[in-house]
Amino acid sequence: MKNCDQFRDMFEAYTLGALDAPERAALEAHLAISCPDCAKSIEEARWLVSQLHYLAPEATPSDMLKGRLMQSVREETRSAPRFVPPKSNIPFWMWAGVAALFLATIYSAWNAQRLTREIQRADQIAAAILQHRHELETQLEDAKREAAILVDPASVKIALASPAPQAPPLEAIWHSKLGIVVSGQKVPAPAGDRVLQLWLIPKTPGRKPIPSLTLRPDADGKFVLLVSNPPELMAATKALAITEEPPGGSPAPTTPPLWVGGVS
Ligand SMILES: [Zn+2]
Questions:
Q1: Would you say the C-alpha torsion 111, 117, 120, 124 has a positive or negative sign?
Q2: What residue ranges do the domains of the chain occupy?
């Protein structure tokens, strides 16, 4: 007859060698009829007890518990020659309490790890959302400014012509305060990572071209470039030019202009 229930609370104590002799004998007799459930529980209890050392280094036995343990050992030594079954002095409820503490310690360590991981994941998601929001805001600001430049009656249209016959003409919309929108279609992409770079050519003779933004047309050869410049720079600009430059652009043009257009 299997009556596992009566052993249910004894596994940890058994693993720790803390059962009374009759209790131990009863449990071992039960295990001898090969009860896989209880054998499994014993294995789990062994694992649980072995984990305490790693998971709860601060959980040192109290002086009272140490005293009890020492007393128990001494009594066993003393009583051994008389072949009287040694009686553990540690009450079962104490071992049950210790086992419960093991479980609570393991659970809270595991739970703390899990919560830490979840917090990290939430932080990452929040950072990505904020980053995305910032990008959208920037795009929205750019789109608003582009729209304002395109619809403002004060804007001026500038045609950028190319000396190369195969290069399509580009268009720049110029607003003296809001900036410049340069756009193109069917523009051949520069080789490799090279880029197209916009230059502001100063009105003052002898002044060097002022480097502006770089771009690469998309797969269809389209691009829209928004340049926000301070009005005084806009007022000092005579012409726009576009050259092909290494990735990231150059401080001064390194190739002849592919497109040029005068600001009238
Ligand atoms: Zn059993």
A1: negative
A2: 4-59+91-113, 156-262
